[in-house]
Amino acid sequence: MRIKVINGPNLNLLGKRERDIYGEMTLAEIEQQLTNLARELGCQVDFFQSNHEGELIDAIHACRSGYDGILINPAAFTHYAYAIRDAIAAVELPVVEVHMSNIYQREPFRHESVTGAVCRGQVAGFGPNSYLLGLQGLVEIIGQG
Ligand code: DQA
Q1: Fewer CB under 10 Å: which end of the chain, C or N?
Q2: Pocket test for ligand 1, best of 50, 96, 101 (most atoms within 8 A of CB)
Q3: Does 99 qualify as catalytic in the annotation?
Q4: pLDDT tens across 73-132, in order?
Q5: Ligand 1 atom closest to residue 99's alpha carbon, by position in its atom list
Q6: Mean of pLDDT values over 47-69
Q7: Which residues pair with 5 in a beta bridge?
Q8: How far is the CA of 42 from the centre of ligand 1 (A)?
Q9: What's the CA gap between 2 and 38, in Å, rounded?
Q10: Pairwise CA distance, residues 135 & 143, whole Å
Q11: Mean pLDDT of all residues in the chain?
């Protein structure tokens, strides 16, 4: 089982960026935790991060060959990027959306997820653990076929 973990804009700055909201852990540290959990769950994880919408869309499309599912934090694109939503719908793979913060407790513009509507599930508000919980859920969904 092979899963792609895709992170959107500004998440390369985790650990430095708005630490009161997103905490101290870097993206590399989160990816290491995901790699460890993936080993326990018997799957393989590969990582991609971009600050550019088109690159994220290309990465989602590329998952059509060789991947069984996608774990994605589209970051701010969550709230308005219809092209990313369409890419997720187009690939016909199970996709789980994660957010470190509880987007529903924050500014009104973050309350809507245009991408979440085409994902199989969403995890929000658990900090770095959102990624780990999301991976567990995604592996279960893939396992159910
Ligand atoms: C985020 C929430 C988004 O609203 C924000 O733009 C981010 C991070 C999260 O993980 O909590 O960049 O996706």
Answers
A1: C
A2: 101
A3: yes
A4: 999 999 999 999 999 999 999 999 999 999 999 999 999 999 999 999 999 999 999 999
A5: 10
A6: 98
A7: 47, 71
A8: 28
A9: 9
A10: 12
A11: 97
